[in-house]
Batch of 2 targets.
Target 1
Amino acid sequence: MKYLWRLLPLSLILLMSGCGVQNLSALDPQGPVAEMQYSLIQLSLYIMIFVLVIVFAIYIFVLYRFRERPGDTHIPKQVHGNRTLETIWTTIPILLLLMLAIPNVMDTFTLADVSVNEEGEESEDGEMDHVVVEVMAHQFWWEFTYPDYDITAGQDMYIPTDTRIIIELQSSDVQHSFWVPALAGKQDNVPGIQNDMWFEAPEEGVYMGKCTELCGPSHWLMDFKVIAVDPDTFETWASNMAEPPSNVTEPEGEVAVDGRGVFEQSCISCHAVGDDGGNIGPNLTNYGEREVLAGYMDPTDENLEAWLRDTQEYKPGNEMPNFDHEAINDEEMAALIEYLNELKILEEE
Amino acid sequence: MADHQAVEQHTLPPNPEKATLEGRNKYLGFWFFLGGETVLFGSLFGTYLGLRDGVVDGPGPSDLFHLDLVFIMTMILLTSSLTSVFAVINMKRGNYKGLLMWMWATVLLGVAFLGFEIYEFYEYYHLGLGFTTSAFASSFYTLVGTHGAHVAFGVSWITVLLIRYRKSGLTLTNAPKFYTAVLYWHFIDVVWVFIFTVVYLLGIGG
Amino acid sequence: MSSHVDPSAPLQGKPSKSTERKLKNEMRTQLISFVFMIFITSMAFLSIASDAVPSGFAIPFILILASVQVILQLYFFMHMNAKGTGWVNVMIWSGLFVAALTVATLMLLIGVVKY
Amino acid sequence: MSYEKAQSKNVIWDWLTTVDHKKIGIMYLAGGAFFFALGGLEAILMRIQLMFPEFTFVQAQTFNELLTMHGTTMIFLAAMPLLFGFMNFIIPLQIGARDVAFPFLNALGFWLFLFGGILLNVSWFVGGAPDAGWTAYVPLSSESPGHGLDYYVLGLQIGGAGTLIGGINFLVTIINMRAPGMSMMRMPLFTWSSFVASMLILFAFPALTIGLLLLMLERLFGATYFAVDFGGNVIIWQHLFWIFGHPEVYILILPAFGIFSEVLATFAKKRLFGYSAMVFATLIIGFLGFMVWAHHMFTVGMGPVANAIFAVATMAIAVPTGIKIFNWLLTLWGGRIQFTTANLFALGFLPSFVMGGVTGVMLATSAANYQFHDTYFVVAHFHYVIIGGVVFGLFSGTFYWWPKMFGYRLNETLGKWFFWLFLIGFHLTFFVQHFLGLMGMPRRVASYLPGQGLDSMNFISTMGAFLMTVAFILLLVCIFVSTKNRTNVADPWDGRTLEWTTPTPVPEYNFAQTPLVRELDAYWHEKYEGDGKMKAAEPLEDIHMPNGTILPVVMSLGLVVAAFGLIYLVHPLTIVGFAITFGAMFVRSIKEDHGYHIPVEAIKRDKEEG
Ligand code: HEA
Ligand code: HEA
Ligand SMILES: [Cu+2]
């Protein structure tokens, strides 16, 4: 048991210093929702440590004091019980639990409140004070639709900083769960049902998100990113997504033009660029600015080719077919990759 | 079987079903089983109520249900409950013939009920309500069908008892068997009360 | 060798006078409760079948009638009011309690409406 | 069958046909131990896969199968049967009964469990085990390709029927079969907590039965309860599963609590502190156990009112559990604590379980649960309560009752090594998982990416699991090397309750004469306040015993055949299977079987020999 004792304070230090990778850890909150949850976690942890200290103290005292010593054969007094003691250890836990239950109930209601101010959607300085994002989960990728902007993005979810983000969660197949630990706890994407949540990101940054409901063999790879940018950038991003700049719609480089051809032949039935294309797979309008490829890989050319050639190896069970050399030869592949890499809507301004 | 002589002749106790330890165990155990069955049917009712609006393009309750048929079925089952009560009273009287006769009546009523239910399902099927048509259809057939399966099991069980013990007279062994079968039968009726109320009456009126 | 009970021997004799009397009484009670059940069942059907009864009244009404009838079945037909049925009552009511929770949950908490 | 015939039976046939609660108890233990090793093996394979980031020891699909089967096996096929083993063997002895209320059904329950478990595991060999988690959330489970989930549905259905039968059997046994003087409030706490656990079984398992039935009809016959396009709803499954699932965890822990109550009182040499409060707390836990299931569903979108209510109800369970914890501590207070292996496990339980319990209360904090849910924090929580509670209870019970059951004592030195290694391995494995969860590691992931700060803790966790494996193997060694330890096995620990008054090996009729109980801790009372012997409540007479029968095996086998018919939609096979089962039921009901009597002379002979 000594072992445990040493671990306890150690773990506390670990906890309080905010361990874990920034932007992935619930212990390093980056927005008001995660902060609210973090302070509840802290509160509950303190209460629990209080309980543990009391129990461990009695425990160690008892074990030490009343251990059998060599030669001791006395028969202890057969005690029946004690009213007072029993009242005490019924009352104190109740009080401790109330200390936790009351803030918890309040926070539960706060977190469930997704209403936005009705006055009008614009605040004084003309900026939007909330953005609605419909999050559709698919095996094994994420689709983000911004109904007010009439745009759809895949895998990377751009949001403006300091703005209330209203999330409407849905699923197109099995149940998934939407979790961005540094910004907010999770809610589930349930087929047939819509769940709402909200969060805010005061700081610009890239926040890692994960699916946390077992959804098939590639569940563990179903990551996404939340990218918080300042509201102006966000507006630019949104309008460019809606009407992509010319480099996206009409690529200039010769190779990229060929690439566009390959894309139109092999990819467009599932993936859209701009308005153009299917929606079975993620929208690729801003592929060139993706943080990651397929939700989790470095978006290098080699990885992209490997992925296209053998998607089932990298995300087993996903809907995308493999493209072998017969479907896309090496030359075409290079062109396609170049085309995809050029799909940038923010920097090419 | 018995390698010992029966010495004592038994006189009829007031509650022959509970006169032996085996009987008392059976009695209690069976009641507990019914307690579990309550939750079982509760889950089915809940599922049905949760899904009853899920008719999609298929027919819904008000397109299907006829009160007259359900009323007849209800009366049959209710009456069969009474006949089984009479059976138990006769058992306690030591009137074995009476016990058998009332139990047979119960079986007959049970069979009649099943007949109506099969007819009913047949009709719904022809009105376009297949088992897989909609969530409503699946949950309806599952709930009412599970009840029907209970009726069928009850009928077979009692029939086996009646044939097996047609000549034995009332004994300390078969009294608890008849008694538990009757409990089961009443329970089937209890479930039906909820079915006709929640499924049929609410289906039409609510 | 001591004597053993033979459980397959037919039971002999008549019930005692007091038992007879009790059974007579019981017969009458059961008949009355049966008639009453028929009555309330018919009321339930009528209240739905006739247009005269508004459904705002009919629905709670038939649910109450159903509960009454179930109580009658349990306590009269199935003798849950007899002596020595303490544990039976515990288990049946616990079962009903869990069943009621289940039904309420599956009606309300399946995500369609948020509470 | 006569007494002589009953005595001379082929050993294998004897075990196949036995209706003796002690033999059935031992078979439950053996079956449970087998599945525990299997589930442990699956855990080890998972832990190896998670040892390094992006490790490819097993494929993702295999990993999902492993985690599903690990959870399912451990809960349904290991922990519960092992507890049932002790309950079967010990309860009748503790209440002074000759057998359980329904010996036939008792055997049936065991064979249903065994065949259900085997059926479930057949899936490994015929194209893949179930892969949707032990919770089998729809529509992942209802649409999972292959037959894995069909095996899950039918295997659990068969095993679950066995459990329900067992539960009813214990309830009636405890109510009807107690020896004279053994009032409810004189029952040992193991019996009490098993009683409450059986009540939970009675009301929780039917919800699972229906859940599985629906899932089966959906998968095999195209029903549409969970198909959104047909008006179905996927949350219904989750409710049905957790209405069963949460009480299930108390079904596991309550009997373990019972074991600790016996062991701690015995080795502190003190009467259990606050006996009636303990009984009351057990009942409250059982009751509250039915009010909290939705704490597994906080993130599923029930709404804030529902979340708040279920959060508060869940927290309330900490109160009765705390009452128990403090009563145990006060039982030790003022005692003379002996550090036997059995007691070490009980003592190890106290801090370990409290750590798991308090993280449970943290999880119950609904708003914070959005962060905890479906992460390794939850995995850490439930292994702390399950291993620190249930598994420690099982090991404690093993060392405590082994002499009574098998006639020899387990080696204490090896036992203590086993304890310490297991304890350290257990904390090493699961303590770090709290942080893994909070640092962003979801549960049920086949692997994780490097550079997310999850590597070293996962490695530590796997090392702990290896340590547990070493410990477990040590236990097996301990069992085999101890067989010579045959001194004083009837009452090796200065026991307090009736099971220690029986001779060892326990005769098939348990008690030559039913004992008369005069106090709580009946045997202790007679030892320290009487003449050390139980008073008899009846004269020495012939003892009536039930006959053995093969029908339970046949009935269970029939259901397995029917299950194969259903899984592969071969309807004739299904019909044959059900025909076998119902045929056996029919035979059972028309063939009266009145058992046999053991003559007084034979009992007297036993007494002299023993
Ligand atoms: C034996 C099994 C067992 C036991 C006993 C418990 C006990 C408890 N469990 Fe646990 N639980 C599981 C097994 C168990 N659990 C499993 C298997 C899962 C995961 C299932 C899955 O998803 O696969 C789970 C998941 C789980 C969740 C869902 C997590 C999630 O998925 O998001 C929650 C949430 O509320 C929870 C809560 C609790 C609580 C409050 C208790 C309480 O009963 C604990 C009470 C005990 C104490 C609190 C300690 C002693 C008390 C004191 C010393 C008094 C003073 C204390 C205070 C004032 C706090 N459990
Ligand atoms: C009674 C319940 C129980 C028990 C005892 C255990 C015991 C263990 N469990 Fe688990 N576990 C669950 C119930 C249980 N578990 C459940 C319900 C889940 C959730 C599943 C889901 O998500 O659906 C889970 C999930 C789970 C996970 C998370 C998987 C995931 O989410 O991806 C992990 C990971 O570390 C894990 C590890 C372990 C380990 C290392 C042990 C160890 O303690 C195991 C100890 C056992 C041994 C050490 C025996 C070893 C034996 C051998 C190796 C063979 C030797 C044999 C012979 C010599 C004959 N368990
Ligand atoms: Cu729970």
Target 2
Amino acid sequence: MDNVVELKNLKVTFVAKQSFLKELLMKEQPLVRAVDGVNVTIKKGEILSLVGESGSGKTTLGKAILNLVDIADGEILFQNQVVNFHHKQEVRRFRQKAQVIFQDPYQSLNPKSLIIDIVAEPLEVNRLIKTEAERNERVMKALHDAGLDPPERYLYRYPYELSGGQRQRVAIASALILNPEFIVADEPVSMLDVSIRTGILKLLVELKESKGLTFLFITHDLSLAWLISDRIAIMYLGKIMEIGESDTVIKQAVHPYTQALLEVMPIPEVNRHRQRKVLSGETPNPTNIPAGCRFHPRCPHAFDRCREEEPVLQAARSNHLAACHLIEKETSQENSHD
Amino acid sequence: MKLLRVENLKTYFHISEGIVKAVDDVSFSLDDGQCLGLVGESGCGKTTTALSINRLLPPEGIIEGGEIYLESVKLTVLSDVEIRKHRWKDVSMVFQGAMNAMNPVMKIGEQIAEAVVWHQQVTHQQAWNRAKELFELVELEPGRIGGYPHEFSGGMKQRAMIAMALACDPKLVIGDEPTTALDVMVQAQILNLLDRLRKTLKMGLIIITHDLSILGETCDRIAVMYAGKIVEIGSTEDVYDRHMHPYTHRLLMGFPNIHRPKLMPEPIPGSPPDLIRPPSGCRFHPRCDYAQEICQEQEPGMTTAGNGHSYACHFGGAFNG
Amino acid sequence: MKRQYLAKKIIQSLVTIFFVLVFNYILFRVMPGNPLAMIMRNPRASQEAIERTRELFGLNQSWVVQFWIYLKHLFTGDLGISFLYRQPVTEIIVARIIPTVLMVGLAQILAIIVGVFLGVISAWKRGSRVDVAALGFSLVTYSMPTFWLGIILIFVFSVSLRWFPTSGMLTPGQSFSSTFAMVRDAARHLVLPVLTLSLVLIGEYTLTMRNTLLDVLTEDYMTTAKAKGFDDNYLIKKHALPNAMLPMITLIAINLGLVIGGTIQVETIFSWPGLGRLMFDALKARDYPLLQGIFLLITLSVIVANLIADVTYGYFDPRVRE
Amino acid sequence: MSSIDGVMRRKKLKRFWNGFKNNRMATTGAVILVFFSVAAVIGPVLFPYNPMEFGTVETILQPPSTTYYLGTDNLGRDIFRNLLSGARISLMVGILATLISMFLGTSIGIMSGYFGKTIDSVLMRVTDFFLVIPWLPLVLVLVAILGSSVWIIILVIGLTSWAGTARVVRSQTLSVKERPFIERARAIGADHSTIMMHHILPNVFPLVFANTILVTAVAIISETTLSFLGLGDPTRPSWGMMLHYAFQSGAASSGAYWFFLPPGLCVVLVVLGFTFLGYAFDEILNPKLRRR
């Protein structure tokens, strides 16, 4: 199972918007550490979900992989080698293999282009087609793969004439037309109604199975992640807190943050009596990340070590990692008991 | 006496393309201190129903028929001037995108105090103190009432909106997707807050949402809407465990439940109907797997399936067969 | 934090002012048909004016030094001698400032009040007869050259109805018993020019106010305010206007540049003794030192006005913190 | 583009035409402009006019009559013929100057909006400079120095009136640039120029189009004002020049209405035509203002 994407200690930072005068006096500018040292591998043919609240850096990480955002530190290996983004040919080959689906179906298509042009654009931009016939044929196939049948009905229409679900399928068709191997799907269904959403999720899973496509599925909804992905990674303030098989992470969560997310996750059931244990406050501002474990100020089990030393991803059980000192504390207690 | 009674409400939008029958013969009621969840997908008419109560519809939206009673007062016959007295004093609202729902150039404390001064004719200083009390009630730091909306985070803005809604001790608060724009953690905080306030202040609460799964702990009753009509209404237990309408069933299946085995739900084919020329008979028939001849011709009336639980389908529960 | 915004705006204005000084320097020296050569040959320019100008511009030194001399003179207020009037330019200009400020000030105030009022009504009662009328009126006045509007008013009110004098600031050759009588006479002369200038502005302010307000009325916070049960006047006064007035402040400042253009036309037709008329005469006589002086004064005053507008905008809009 | 695409495009144009047809302002504006353009094209051919050919003493300031439909001016020249050839010049100057300022304004607006950072602040300082400088004095001084041939006037008006458009286009570009479909274009490898031409321009163009028409109105007024103040090109008598002579010869006070009324009315009507059209397009294209 070779790796499609490998992130080594990836860091992405932005310069926080800052007053004109301070800028003038070249004062040290506060940095937003959006992605703050992430090590993760995405294997071929799997859907890895990246789950986190707003401000966790999940979208920035997705954009970094696609070179839509500059990296501050660390390395991104695509199919085991670093892509040199200054070399035109190499970038073109990378673009054909790695594609993206955005969240907002109403804004991710150019309102002034016909559907046929939107879907065919990746071909034209990378100069991959010679004749018009070949172009139309590939567009029709991509629309069919995205579940828009009969394709002819959609070719010569404008985005405003389609529903949200249909537009998202056009975006998927446009991503599929280059026969990519890896797709970053950034909250692809969060703006769709439930009845339409499941259709898109089914399509993504089918594409994974039929074409062996690899997905990075970015979402804030833990239950969706559980539904469609093989592995789940929980992200908080720019770092991965926990990563493992989707069932193990949901059923045997180790990290207190994942447990808190599971606790508040809405479930379509009647549980009138249970008053949910809710974390206080909101995700702090990524310009001043707390010392030691970044979750300790809101963590119910925080102890002194959490305040000083930042925990590293370590194995809680086979291929289920978590960045939390509780793991050592428990294993050391077990050793001390025996 | 019921706190709120809505009977055969019809609200249509007159636009250039034609007449949109956004709400077409909707009836439901609410007791004092009770919480009703109004759930449905976009375009089903849930927000229009809420805006019709206070008559906050845009100019092209007109209440064509039906009655709305707030306790003994018949709202639908009141003139524009008369209905203003009931807005916020009896029925107040918490809107969705809190980012834009507050005046960006006016202090938040002022936006709360102005309603108190207007309806309860108190001095500005008294209203300002009232605003401080309300901030404490919604667990916000009273010192911050002098701040402006852009200085508050998403969660804090929503709490401020709730404080604003409670300013005149209303009998009924309507939340239009109050937690949709929030993170799941903050959403839980807000839902807990709404639940606590409803119980302590004994006020009626209507929560409008497209997310059926969040109504589990907060609502006593749930009404499911589709294409301008209520297709099923009942207690939370009725709708979750004993629902009879195929649309409610499909909607519920769409929300993955980690306590149950992992199964990829079937999407509902087709897309929401065009409300200018809605489908004949039962409006869900073009997308329903159990639709038969009669569904196309005859619109199903409300069949009762237990006390307070009724649905609009000729073949209720067909999905259980 | 507001100081940062203020500092930024001041620095930007200083940059623009420097641009203007450089532009002005080039305009009156380096442009083809070099104005200096024109002065030398201009028959009416007295020997003393030519000498003064040569020394003033330091013709023999390098242009950098000339530029430095130019700046030095600017700051000491010495803008050279107008050879049309054979007086220092500064003195001529100072005498003409009051009439122009009076006229422009009155016209602006009148236009803002009427424009905002009309704009609010037509936005609030959109599509009604009032809206259509206000819109029609604004578009017509917006499309009318100022000077032509002036001529029409003269033709109607002065020539035909004889209500107002056709030109000048005071009735020539009339002795006034009291200052009040003089003021009354000046006021009668002022009516038509101010009316002309403000009519043109009212159109633009009404249109902008209407569009900005239509934008604001679609915002969510207006629905929230309406839900609170306030009546229409309160909604407009306390919620819609404060948000709609912000863009108006910037427009009024930027608009000042165009108003000066209007002033030149109005003062020419009504021979109103202000800066506009002065510029027109200087232009006809190709009196460059005077032309340059007026041009500089007008440009700098517009920049200052814009700075004041930016500051007031920053003061009223709490979001302008960072 | 195959025929089907032609059908789609016609369908969209048809929808636009309906919106246009029942918009009273747009139709009145269009009718006025068509009338004047026909007059400007055919007029001088049917009724040639030579500004240098003066009339005799008797023909000076004649009121309208069968021979001189609109009477004669202070030099005995036929006002009606002057009016027709004036139409051609005023429209030409207005339109050409606008093209220059639209081209400059749009490209500067898009570039500073799209690239941001240093390019944006530099271009914006220049734009502010032109916005802040009082327009008429600047043009007066420039024309006074550069000479007042009609081509110089076109250039001067064009080069000094693009700032407003640049500001409007820049803010529209900033809002379009934030939309995800631009990021999608970058993700599939489109370079800056493709994104600007293929994605940003089509989405900015409707606003530019409406703005162009309004700027034409301003350009025509500018030319007329310039000529009125005596800086027009005497060899090419525009309506402004006619008004200049009318005012110089005291037509207003002497009641020679046929001398100063027609050119003024023509200017106002043409400018009104453009303003109505421009404002109507703005209302049709601008979603916020559109009547539901």
